[in-house]
Amino acid sequence: MTRPFLELTVAEWLDTLAAPEPFAASGSAAAMTAATAAAVIALTARATQDGGGGIAAQALALRGRLVGLAEWDADAYAASVAALAAASGGGDARRDFALRSALERAAEVPLTIAETAADVALLATAAARVVSPEVEADAQAAAALAAGAAAAAARLVEVNLSMAEGDERVRRARAAATQAATAAREAVPADSLQSPE
């Protein structure tokens, strides 16, 4: 990584994601999406007369954690791509072990992203209940963004651990995605397009 993600312009960040060389990919994108959702939650709390009862501080702490996770994921992704390239030559036991180890390490980061994104979705749902009506829809949208990020990160855990059948981390990732999706549905009114039928 050349510069911390927060020092990149939006255009540079998007170019980083679109670049063919292994650097940042969907795990980092999921983390930054959840970080964006957390920033929107902070906005809604700050736009509320009483400040949302500490919601802004919680949202900003989650945003900071997720930006760090995005950068950590970029490093793990690059290591995984290198391990896959090294393992493409065949069935050497040491190479297979190195590949499996790299994929397991790579699964840890999106698992943490999924669980943290679920925390953001829960916070957004709480914010939607207490913020000013003018920004309630923003809190609801933040919940949906966080739920999407949790689902994306959970899928990466599934893929990275596909060789480890029954791995507890897959169950945890799926649970985080489900929790985030439930929170996002609860954030919106019953007559919304997002609400369950």
Can you describe this structure?
Helix 5 packs antiparallel against helix 6. The model has no long low-confidence stretch (mean pLDDT 87). The chain has one domain (10-187): Formiminotetrahydrofolate cyclodeaminase monomer, up-and-down helical bundle (Four Helix Bundle (Hemerythrin (Met), subunit A)). With 197 residues, the chain is mostly helical. The N and C termini lie far apart (45 Å). It is built from 6 helices and no strands.
Give keywords.
elongated; 6 helices; 197 residues; Four Helix Bundle (Hemerythrin (Met), subunit A); 76% helix; mainly alpha
Secondary structure blueprint with pairings:
Layout: H1 10-18, H2 26-46, H3 55-87, H4 93-130, H5 133-160, H6 168-187
Helix pairs in contact: 2-3, 2-4, 2-5, 3-4, 4-5, 4-6, 5-6
Overall shape? elongated
What value does the Rg take, in angstroms?
Answer: 18 Å
Mean pLDDT across residues: 87
Query: Helix/strand/pairing class, anyone?
Result: mainly alpha
Report how far apart the termini are.
45 Å
Number of helices: 6
**H-E order:** HHHHHH
Which homologous superfamily in CATH is the superfamily? Formiminotetrahydrofolate cyclodeaminase monomer, up-and-down helical bundle
CATH class: Mainly Alpha
CATH architect. name: Up-down Bundle
- State the share of residues found in helices, binned by percent: over 70%
Task: Work out the count of structural domains.
Answer: 1
Biggest β-sheet: count, sense, barrel? none
Please tally the β strands and state the result: 0
**CATH fold-level name:** Four Helix Bundle (Hemerythrin (Met), subunit A)
